[in-house]
Specification:
heterodimer, A: mainly beta, three-stranded antiparallel beta sheet, globular, B: alpha+beta, DNA Methylphosphotriester Repair Domain, 2 domains, two-stranded antiparallel sheet, 6 strands, about 35% helix
Chain lengths: ~100, ~230
């Protein structure tokens, strides 16, 4: 799966503080209070406390690599329109 | 006998791979197919898209997706400068990278082509960011029929006729000269500005002239640290 360099540069080093969501969406909050919102096809969970190492993406496949743990794989509902990162103030950091 | 057959096969291969072989005419749509490209947006507000450099935060469209767009529109051959894999609702207006928002827009059709649509995109962005037009209305206008939107928000008749020649580019540069000396050129996509005499002064696809003070007040940053 292809490295998503732009998103990796945004998220690398952030620690997952909490997660919430349902079958259509997943919201991850990081230790700096930034958020990653994903529109997903199916349930997905992420390991709370893990630090992001890299993000890979290809078509509807989305993968978060974390330090010292298994990667998280998610299926995106609409590739190109399913991923958003906002900083603690709500400003856009990444869209894709 | 076998030698003749092999020779004929080689000849046939040569003919089929020859550059002289007639090329299939490729589709050159001036409007997207609404079934393939209805348009799609990110969940963003006018406040989001009016921040200088907003569009740089959006991931680039992967080449594989662009190829899929060309295939869906029946375009089997495309060369640099023929088409732009265009966002129907532009990134600057909150359009997304979904394939539902992408279409192959020709640079060569006249008078309506990708460069003309760029003008509309810039105009709508200006109207939205100056509070004269609602973002949703701008998105709807460009998605439903960008040519009608051009006539409504820019003017009745576009002057651009496709890829400009060297002379035309020089004329355009003169026509697009700053209103006052010393103004900087703001690349509204990247959020950076260039000073007079620098490499990209007045040359980026999207941008406008303004004083350096105005550029700074609007949140634009000097390109490469000094705008040079």
């Amino acid at each position: 799966m292809q490295l998503n360099r732009k998103l990796t540069n945004v998220l690398r080093g952030r620690t997952i503080q909490s997660e919430s969501g349902d079958a259509a969406s997943l919201t991850v909050t990081f230790d700096d209070r930034s958020t990653l919102k994903l529109k997903v096809a199916g349930q997905a969970t992420v390991p709370v406390g893990a630090k992001v190492k890299a993000v890979h993406e290809s078509g509807d496949q989305f993968q978060i690599d974390v330090e010292n743990g298994p990667s998280v794989q998610v299926r995106l509902a609409d590739p190109g329109s399913s991923v958003a990162v906002h900083d603690r103030n709500g400003a856009v950091e990444y869209l894709g | 006998m076998k030698t003749v057959a092999v020779r004929n096969l080689l000849l046939l291969t040569l003919v089929l791979s020859s550059p002289l072989r007639a090329q299939q005419p490729q589709p050159e749509p001036i409007l997207p197919d609404p079934k393939l490209t209805p348009g799609d947006v990110f969940d963003v507000t006018a406040e989001d898209i009016c921040v200088p450099g907003y569009a740089k935060k959006v991931r680039n469209v992967p080449q594989s997706v662009k190829e899929q767009v060309y295939r869906e529109y029946g375009i089997s051959e495309h060369h640099r400068g023929n088409y732009e894999c265009d966002h129907l609702i532009s990134l600057e207006l909150g359009g997304s990278n979904s394939i539902k928002n992408l279409w192959p827009e020709s640079y060569r059709t006249r008078p309506w082509n990708a460069r003309v649509k760029d003008r509309l995109e810039n105009r709508l962005h200006e109207l939205v960011c100056s509070g004269q037009l609602d973002l949703k209305a701008a998105q709807q206008a460009i998605a439903s029929n960008w040519i009608e939107a051009y006539k409504k928000y820019v003017g009745p008749e576009p002057k651009a006729l496709g890829r400009p020649s060297e002379d035309e580019r020089a004329e355009m540069a003169l026509a697009a000269a700053p209103a006052a000396p010393g103004q900087v050129w703001v690349n509204t996509r990247s959020g950076k500005y260039w000073k007079p005499g620098s490499r990209y002064y007045g040359k980026t696809k999207q941008g406008k002239f303004m004083s350096e003070g105005e550029a700074k007040a609007a949140g634009f940053q000097p390109a490469r640290g000094a705008g040079e």
